[in-house]
Specification:
The complex is a heterotrimer.
Chain A lengths: L1 H24 L7 H7 L1 E6 L8 E2 L5 E2 L1 H13 L2 E6 L5 H6 L5 E2 L7 H6 E3 L4 E3 L1 E6 L8 H4 L5 E5 L3 H9 L4 E5 L2 H9 L5 E5 H10 L4 E4 L6 E3 L2 E3 L3 H16 L2 H12 L11
Parallel strand pairs in A: 1-4, 1-5, 9-10, 9-11
Antiparallel strand pairs in A: 2-3, 6-14, 7-13, 8-11, 8-12
Chain B lengths: L6 H5 L1 H33 L4 H15 L3 H11 L8 H27 L2 H9 L4 H31 L11 H12 L2 H32 L2
Helix pairs in contact in B: 2-3, 2-5, 2-7, 2-8, 3-5, 4-5, 5-7, 6-7, 7-9, 8-9
Chain C lengths: L1 E10 L2 E11 L4 E5 L6 H8 L7 E6 L2 E2 L4 H10 E4 L11 H11 L5 H14 L15 H13 L5 E5 L7 H16 L3 E5 L3 H7 L2 E6 L2 E7 H6 L4 H10 L2
Helix pairs in contact in C: 3-4, 3-5, 4-5, 5-6
The chains are: A alpha/beta, B mainly alpha, C alpha/beta.
């Protein structure tokens, strides 16, 4: 039994050491503007698949409303930009682990999230909508979907996830890594509806008109913000100033019209199957 | 500054236990069906019919050369276009199919490790190929197969974490859920790692005592 | 009893048996000698179908050996084989080893099979080893059990493939004694061996095979005292003291 005791001891020591070291190294590194400029690079975390904020076009490049804002930030700072694509639920942990400088991914500002990260002022106002499988016609409201055998698919970790889990009492909420898989579940008929923000629902429905219809009227109101690691008020201030300038110079309006109204990018972005 | 807070584990303990249960359940079912597939596969691979041998070969090579994650996604989302499989069924199916290929090789190697003189002696006594396999070769092979088979079980428990991507409420899925709600990535993932570790370690410890006892009877 | 006619056998490109013929009458004891690689073991193993043949034919008690599964099954019940490596089933006791085939192939009831087994164990001199596992026996004892196991199926012919080559010298005699008794009882036997003493004492006929060809065949007396072929003489000069 002697070797077993040794093994247990090693495990205990490893566990404790990891805990202690983890505490030490998990200090939020100072990633203020100066640090980013010194690095020569802005590392942006996003979760591709949220139309039209961030998505991948036929040339396999990342494009979208958020992407343009991020590029604008990097340009203003005078640095290169690097995008890192995560699953949505992995973005905040990545920020906490200092793998990225900021997150711009159609992320809603919530109190819970504010405990973990800091947000800029809102740069977009959105709300949750419903995407429904045509096999269930005439759905008018959430109540129509809240039935025991129904499945509501969402992207794990999003406010859609939290909202759906809150409002659906009888239906089952299933969480997937990313809206793409949630949408696929719907198309395969395994889920009756998907809850996600209005822009995404509208576009996804347009991509799959034969299987889906949508109720676009948002039933929540959500502010989207850029997330940065905690303890960086200087960066928050800088970003807020940037956003103000982005709006005042008409850049915002131009981008908005391009991505949400005229949508000339439609042909270049491959539809989701 | 990130402040450690392990209390989140006690708060979500019931959910974690439920996830653990699901992981164990799926793993046990999968190893059971996987072993059945492995026996069939091994017999096919050592049979005298070329068609069976080719079929088994294709099966094993496909499974061993594609990632398990892809297999799971294919079975659930890919085949899901044609017919409906619940996530639980799809998981067990995928994991059984997956481990079955590796078990085929384990059993085949076990069978082939038995000296061919055993089969020859059985045949010389007038036994059929089937009798020689089931009365003489397989019983001896079992002893050699058990340790790597148990090892496959342990691997399966760890690999089963992938079924979380098709929203099966296993240990990993529950953990992801907790992390996205509480943002306590460090504490939760460390705890999950410990869970899997304890599960695997306990099993490999029993395998080692099983091996020890079998070796003694030689 | 056994007719071997112009048997040819190839392993890949190497021709191992180049048209060998041999007749064995009922009750005859035939010893096959030859250097290693000569094909003597292959010839023996062809008789009960463990090896296939490319040409010629082998007939045992009127049944063709290489003629499909049914006849093969019959032949294997007519013949018993004893291997150099004994090949006892290690996961079964001695008596289970002996009764396995009678029970599963001849469908004999267990009690009858066990009775036969005990008689045979007595014959080979191991009456008290019935419940032992093979790993607990010496090489000589294991080989004797193997002989009993083969005899349990009441074969008409016994085939021995270098039965003592894997034994320590002091254990060889006990096995040869059993074989001698068997011969005395009138069993038809074909023995591939290097034991010249056994051949001189027990064999009716000695056959010398070299490089896949039967070089010489004669009664034991004549073979050892007046071999006619050069190659035979060369071989004998190397192995006899």
């Amino acid at each position: 039994m002697d070797w077993l005791r040794k093994v247990a001891l090693v495990c205990l020591v490893t566990f404790v050491a990891t805990g202690i070291l983890g505490g030490f190294t998990a200090q939020a590194q100072d990633k203020g503007v100066a640090a980013i400029k010194k690095n020569g690079k802005l590392v942006v975390g996003t979760a591709s698949g949220y139309y039209p904020f961030e998505m991948v076009d036929k040339k396999n490049e990342l494009v979208g409303f958020d992407v343009d804002i991020a590029k604008g930030i990097a340009r203003e700072m005078g640095v290169q930009i690097e995008f890192q694509n995560y699953s949505f639920s992995g973005l905040i942990p990545a920020l906490q682990a200092s793998k990225i400088d900021l997150v711009i991914a159609g992320m809603t500002i919530t109190d819970k999230r504010k405990e973990a990260v800091d947000f800029t002022d809102p740069y977009f106002i959105s709300g949750q909508a419903l995407l429904i499988n045509k096999s269930i016609p005439n759905v008018k409201s959430i109540q129509d979907l809240d039935k025991k055998d129904y499945v509501i698919a969402v992207s794990m970790g999003t406010t859609a996830d939290q909202t759906a889990s809150r409002v659906f009492k009888n239906a089952t909420v299933k969480k997937f890594e990313g809206s793409a898989l949630a949408g696929l579940e719907l198309l395969n008929g395994k889920a009756q509806a998907v809850v996600h923000e209005t822009p995404w629902v509208a576009i996804y429905q347009r991509m799959n008109p034969d299987k889906t219809y949508a109720i676009l009227e948002p039933f929540t109101t959500e502010d989207l913000g850029i997330a940065v690691p905690k303890g960086n008020p200087e960066l928050v201030t800088w970003l807020n100033a940037f956003l103000k300038k982005y709006k005042e110079t008409g850049e915002y309006k131009k981008a908005y019209n391009y991505w949400f109204v005229d949508m000339p990018w439609w042909e270049n972005v491959p539809p989701k199957k | 500054m990130y402040k450690l807070n392990f209390a989140v584990l006690t708060e979500y303990w019931p959910a974690l236990l439920a996830g653990l249960q699901m992981t164990v359940k799926v793993s046990v079912l999968s190893i059971f069906f996987g072993t059945l597939m492995g026996v069939a596969g091994a017999l096919a691979k050592t049979s005298r019919f070329r068609a069976l041998r080719a079929l088994a070969f294709t099966y094993v090579e496909w499974i061993r050369n594609t990632p398990l994650l892809i297999q799971i996604l294919f079975i659930y989302f890919g085949l899901g276009v044609f017919f409906s499989l619940s996530p639980m069924v799809a998981s067990v199916f995928a994991l059984s199919f997956f481990s079955g290929a590796y078990i085929t090789e384990i059993i085949r190697a076990g069978i082939q490790s038995i000296h061919k003189g055993q089969r020859e002696a059985a045949l010389s006594l007038g036994m059929t190929e089937g009798q020689s396999m089931f009365l003489v070769v397989l019983p001896q092979a079992v002893r050699r197969i058990l340790p790597p088979l148990a090892g496959q079980f342990i691997t399966l428990i760890k690999d089963s974490s992938l079924i979380s991507v098709i929203a099966v409420s296993d240990l990993t899925y529950v953990a992801k859920n907790i992390v996205t709600t509480t943002f306590r990535a460090f504490e939760v993932w460390l705890a999950i790692a410990v869970f899997y570790f304890v599960l695997s370690f306990a099993l490999s410890w029993s395998v080692r005592s099983l091996e020890y006892r079998l070796a003694k009877s030689d | 009893m056994i007719e071997i006619a112009e048997v040819r056998k190839r392993f890949g490109r190497h021709e191992v048996l180049k048209g060998v013929s041999l007749s064995v009458a009922k009750g005859e004891v035939v010893v096959i000698l030859g250097p290693s690689g000569s094909g003597k073991s292959t010839l023996l193993r062809s008789i009960n179908g463990l090896e296939t043949i490319e040409g010629g034919s082998i007939v045992v008690d009127g049944v063709r050996v290489h003629d499909g599964r049914e006849t093969l099954h019959q032949v294997r019940q007519l013949t018993g084989m004893v291997f150099q490596q004994f090949n006892l089933f290690p996961h079964r006791t001695v008596i289970q080893n002996i009764t396995m085939a009678p029970i599963h192939v001849q469908k004999k009831p267990r009690t009858e099979a066990e009775e036969i087994a005990r008689v045979l164990l007595g014959k080979v001199g191991l009456p008290d080893k019935a419940e032992a596992y093979p790993s607990k026996l010496s090489g000589g004892q294991q080989q004797r059990v193997a002989i009993a196991r083969a005899l349990a199926m009441s074969p008409k012919v016994m085939l021995f493939d270098e039965p003592t080559s894997a034994l320590d010298p002091e254990l060889i005699k006990e096995v040869l004694d059993v074989m001698k008794d068997l011969a005395k009882d009138g069993m038809t036997m074909i023995v591939v061996t290097h034991e010249i003493g056994f051949a001189k004492e027990v064999a009716d006929k000695v056959v010398f095979i070299d490089d896949g060809v039967k070089i010489e065949e004669a009664t034991a007396d004549r073979f050892f005292s007046h071999p006619t072929q050069e190659r035979t003489k060369l071989f004998l000069s190397k192995i006899l003291l």
